[in-house]
Amino acid sequence: MESASAWTTLSQRLKIAIVGAGWAGLAAAITATQKGHQVTLLEASRFWGGRARSIKPSFEDHPTLDNGQHILIGAYQQTLSLMQTVGVNLEKVFWRRPLDLRYADGSGLSLPNKSFPMNLLQGIALNPSWRFVDKWQLLKTAWKWQRMRFECEDHLTVADLCQNMTPTVWQDLMEPLCVSALNTPAHEASGSVFLRIMKDALFGPVGSSDLLLPRLDLGDLFPHAAIKWLEKNGVSCHTGQRIESIVDLSNNSNPSFRWQLGDDQFDHLIIATPAWEAAHLLEAFNSAWAATAHQLKHETIATVYVQGPLDFKLPQSMLALRTAQGSPAQFAFDRGQIYTEAHTPGLLAFVVSANKLSKEDVTQQVLGQLRALLIQLGQATLLIDAFNVIQTVVEKRATFACTPNLKRPSAKPCQGITVCGDYVEGPYPATLEGAVISGIQAVP
Ligand SMILES: Cc1cc2nc3c(=O)[nH]c(=O)nc-3n(C[C@H](O)[C@H](O)[C@H](O)COP(=O)(O)OP(=O)(O)OC[C@H]3O[C@@H](n4cnc5c(N)ncnc54)[C@H](O)[C@@H]3O)c2cc1C
User: Fold this and answer.
1) Are residues 314 and 437 in the same domain?
2) % helix, strand, coil for the chain, step of 5
3) 277 lines ligand 1 (CB under 6 A)
4) How far apart are CA 188 and CA 308, in angstroms?
5) Is the pTM of this model over 0.85?
6) If exposure means fewest CB atoms within 10 Å of the residue's CB, which of 193, 250, 336, 370 is most exposed?
7) 134 C-alpha to center of ligand 1: Å?
């Protein structure tokens, strides 16, 4: 191993299996390798990256797509640092820009490229579409949150916290911010988790609220670089290895190892699967833990990929959309403008968060929303027939529903096994940063 002696901080080198290679499992594998353990990474599917992975398009001549459009923010410090560890050049792979949640008519919040609090004060004060009362109520509420140290009682929802804001700011800013950060409707979303995100993003160090839009598909953004780094450092990485059960060897006389997975034996296991799979694997060892994991409810995210004319461009690479009955998408991404790949001009991704529509309905409704958008952009002459849906990806259990008073499973269900994943107890909702933090912390 390249510099194992410099990394090793252990008196004992453990033989560790990591089950699941989403961003949490990859973070655990990198950290365990850095700590000098002997690591085996076992992934059930044929792809690395879990929910944040690339997918093969339905037709060969289409570019590679993602399982869902992902955005990172400047506050995702652990994720960004891990990406650098495996050699990812952040300048190259992200389109970084100050927070911009503007709609096609120019309304909405856009922050200038300044440090806090000037960026926030200026972004709010100079917003041309809000009245004085909108701005005043928003600033008053933000001050109140700061005085509360961004903490509140567990039973409060985001809607409770925003009671004093005007309907304009609520609809333009808070509702879309909440659904994009927590993937849970604002009337049902946890106020305390939302405040934590606000604190880290809007009130954190310079650049924390910046949007980082991936310029590569998700596989090339991190998972492929992570696997390359792991293999180079001696980690045994396997796809197509679904773990169905765990055998406890501690009752055998003089066992050399504590656990058996398939034909191999290990000192320690890190379970990095989604909650429901972890509950199934760990039921026999801690049924209360499994019950907590089972009770989590989930929210859907649908992504509708639409190919437009090659010279078509949205006014912004990421455009906020007004939602209403029949107009479900909250954001449209212009992959042609964002991505480095030469073959994506005119490719749009519409993101529909926390919505239970069927694949057919969501596709039809997004097309209707695009038709209305073209009229609003003064492009009514462009026929909707010039736009083709190339794929709709519906991830039914995209994230756990981040509701008030939610009990999340701990990272230590029993001796010799740790658990990681975006759903494990922690400060964040289901996000890449939450997954990565839990992966790092799961390593003994
Ligand atoms: C459409 C969509 C959009 C999103 N947008 C954003 C965003 O913009 N920003 C953001 O921060 N987050 C976003 N998220 C959330 C983010 O993708 C997740 O929080 C994160 O990927 C979870 O990572 P994980 O490693 O915890 O779990 P997963 O990615 O689910 O990884 C678990 C892995 O375990 C494997 N596995 C399961 N069972 C077994 C088994 N028995 N044996 C072996 N392997 C097994 C699975 O195949 C999978 O690879 C989005 C999610 C979706 C679905």
Assistant:
1) no
2) 35, 20, 45
3) yes
4) 36
5) yes
6) 250
7) 37
